[in-house]
Design brief:
- InterPro entries: DUF247_pln.
- Keywords: Membrane, Transmembrane, Transmembrane helix.
- It is elongated and about 115 Å long.
- It is built from 20 helices and five strands.
- Helix 9 runs parallel beside helix 15 and helix 17 crosses helix 18.
- Strands 1-3-2 form a three-stranded mixed β-sheet. A two-stranded parallel sheet has the order 4-5.
- The protein has two domains: about 200 residues, no CATH class; about 130 residues, no CATH class.
- By secondary structure, it is mainly alpha-helical.
């Protein structure tokens, strides 16, 4: 007689749970396509708020969060304004929706995290969010298109917060989807010919607050940007690629106050590119760095992006690894602020000094771009330190004649004591 329990637990029943694993495996997107990641817990544990939106969700990862619902109605108002400038509103909306739906597989492949929304739900999220972003950039670019009672532009803090939220790594949509909407809704609109291209529109919105490199801003060219954050990353590239000596470890240097104490001059650089640190003839030039709440969030998201994106150069990670050594404590921050190198808008030195110390916690500095600079600084520091100590010793003991006599007397006494000890040893004769 067959045991019913054993029959139920036969080969076909026992391995049925593997079907679920097979489905999950087959449903995976290629890792090489990912460009929008969840920020790892290790980075969030240092300053989790830097990665969370404050007023608006963009894309599927934060969609539906209660604290961000306030902006949903404003998205629709902006979408309506964008559509009203198109010759055929209904047809344009239909073609835009279809274009986003056709991108469904490509869109999902860009997210590390599996998106559980249905194709229509995901298309709606990207269509509404994409239209809002385009209209926001247009209104920012052309003042005459702003609505008189627009609560977003009537509140300066709101625009600043939107600039912050739209630069978060987890709050992105694929750039190709935004480009498609731009071609369908903006280029064919009544104002399309009077507007710059999409990358220029985007950067025009972010540039005033994020202190980006003017040269890079002017030379921006079209290429397949994964998302807005990657476009912003390109605007922080150094004017000349720094030399990489160590690719697996980074060289630290002394703090700003220590360098200053031994006579190394710290000077505000004249370039706007924050990467262009130069050390020549005992002078370290550091370009000015503007620090406020939005820049802190931006830099931490750019560092997270460099940590997760394969092939993306770690310029910003390298920069803050170096600055974390230069700005070691409050006295270092005060010194650099006094020289105009740090422009602090956060209020309170404790915030700025802790910022530099926290920025690279839990971060792997794999490609350090300031090794040569650090080697030169360290070499000059220890040379200057030796001279500084010798000068201090000389000033302490040889400043007055009696100091010289005291040193000479001490040396003579030591010499006589040594001679006396030698004679005592030589004159000693053990008994036989």
């Amino acid at each position: 007689m067959v045991n019913p329990v054993a029959a139920e637990d036969g080969p076909s029943q026992r391995h049925r749970w593997l079907d679920g694993i097979t489905i999950k495996i087959d449903d995976l997107s290629p890792v090489s396509n990912w460009s929008i990641w969840r920020v790892p817990h290790s980075l969030r544990s240092v300053n989790g708020d830097a990665y969370n939106p404050h007023v608006i969700s963009i894309g599927p990862l934060f969609h539906g969060q209660h604290v961000l619902q306030y902006m949903e109605v404003h998205k629709l108002y902006y979408m309506r304004s964008l559509l009203q400038r198109t010759p055929h509103r209904e047809e344009t909306l239909e073609s835009s929706a279809k274009a986003i739906e056709d991108f469904d597989e490509m869109i999902r492949a860009r997210y590390e995290e599996k998106i559980h929304s249905s194709p229509s739900e995901l298309a709606e999220i990207l269509l509404v969010d994409g239209c809002f972003m385009l209209e926001l950039f247009i209104r920012y670019s052309k003042v005459d298109l702003r609505v008189q009672d627009d609560p977003l532009f009537n509140s300066p803090w709101m625009i600043l917060t939107l600039q912050r939220d739209l630069s978060l790594l987890e709050n992105q949509i694929p750039f190709f989807a935004l480009e498609k909407l731009h071609s369908l809704l903006v280029e064919s609109s009544t104002i399309g010919q009077s507007l710059p291209g999409l990358p220029e529109l985007v950067l025009g919105f972010f540039k005033p607050v994020f202190y980006m490199n003017n040269e890079n801003f002017r030379m921006i060219t079209r290429r397949p940007y994964p998302h807005l954050l990657d476009l912003l990353h390109d605007c922080y590239l150094p004017s000349a690629t720094p030399v990489r000596i160590n690719t697996r470890e980074w060289l630290s240097t002394q703090s700003a106050t220590s360098l200053n104490e031994v006579g190394i001059v710290l000077r505000k650089g004249t370039t706007r590119n924050m990467f262009d640190l130069k050390f020549r003839n005992g002078v370290l030039e550091i370009p000015p760095l503007l620090i406020h709440g939005s820049t802190v969030s931006l830099f931490q998201n750019l560092i997270a992006y460099e940590q997760l994106s394969r092939g993306t150069p770690q310029y910003i990670t390298s920069y803050f690894a170096l600055m974390s050594r230069l700005v070691y404590d409050r006295s270092d921050a005060e010194l650099l602020e006094g020289k105009g190198i740090i422009e602090n808008e956060m209020g309170g030195w404790k915030d700025v000094s802790e910022l530099f110390n926290d920025m690279c916690k839990q971060v792997v500095v794999q490609d350090f771009y300031y090794s040569e600079l650090c080697q030169d600084l360290n070499s000059r520091f220890w040379t200057r330190w030796a001279i500084h100590k010798a000068t201090s010793w000389r000033n302490t003991f040889f400043r007055r004649p009696w100091g010289v006599l005291s040193i000479m007397a001490a040396c003579a006494l030591l010499s006589l004591t040594a001679i006396q000890t030698i004679y005592a040893v030589l004159s000693y004769s053990p008994r036989t």
